[in-house]
Amino acid sequence: MPSMKRTAFGSTKKPKVYNQQARAAVFLDRDGIINPDTGYAFRPDDAELEIGVALGLSTLKKMGFLLPVITNQSGVARGYYSLYDVFAFNQKLNFILQKEAQISLDGFYICPHFSGGIIPQYKAECLCRKPKTALIEMARDEFNIDLTRSFFIGDKVSDAQCAHNASISPILVTKEKKLPSLDFACAIFSSLKDAVKYIKKNTQI
Question: For residue 128, which of 14, 98, 115, 161 sits 20 to 30 Å off, Cα-Cα?
Answer without folding.
Answer: 98
